[in-house]
Amino acid sequence: MLGFMVNDIERKEIEYLLRREMEELLHDLGDQRIEHIVKRAMEERYRILFKLFKRFAPEKECLKYLPNKYMQR
After folding, report:
1. How far apart are CA 20 and CA 27, in angstroms?
2. How does DSSP classify residue 5?
3. What pLDDT, in 10s, does the model give residues 4-38?
4. Cβ contact 65:19 at 8 Å
């Protein structure tokens, strides 16, 4: 098991970066011009980012970004 210590400002910055990246992925997933195989990779990346996000964000914030709401599977 690995771990690291961050202060509150760093935690908020990490949370913000993860949120922005997930929002960008959600936006791109709605683009019909992107091929299916690329979207599958984007969905996998979203799931990984969401798992990280759950470690930093409050539960109420996590509910807004639940992957099942946006993903096909």
Report:
1. 11
2. -
3. 888 999 999 999 999 999 999 999 998 999 999 99
4. yes
